[in-house]
Design brief:
Distance between the termini: 96 Å
Number of domains: 1
Number of strands: 0
Order of helices and strands: HHHH
Helix content: over 70%
Mean pLDDT: 85
Number of helices: 4
Length: 111
Amino acid sequence: MEEQKNPVSEFAIASLVVGIASFITLAGTEKAIIAIVFGVLALKRLERNEQLSGKNLAKAGIMLSIISLIVTVIFIIKVYPRIQQRMMQLQSESAGGNTGNSQAGKTPEAR
């Protein structure tokens, strides 16, 4: 006898695929949010239609997206201020020593 397989929810597949993409890029906040939305839609559809499968796919997509969002928030809190400080330091260095002329930035009267 052949076992009848239930069709998999498209939202569950989309949630997993977009969740993996957001996890791999780790700055894909928009992808993570979309994956969570797809996962929630899949779980709601799966509750109403028992002939569909893919509950674990939807949950996996949601979990990967949540992890991606948490890592992104931690990155923003911990690393971004240092990057911003370094960029400002580089800007001030390049503005001060860019021309090689010590008279740069002074008005003609002050020279």
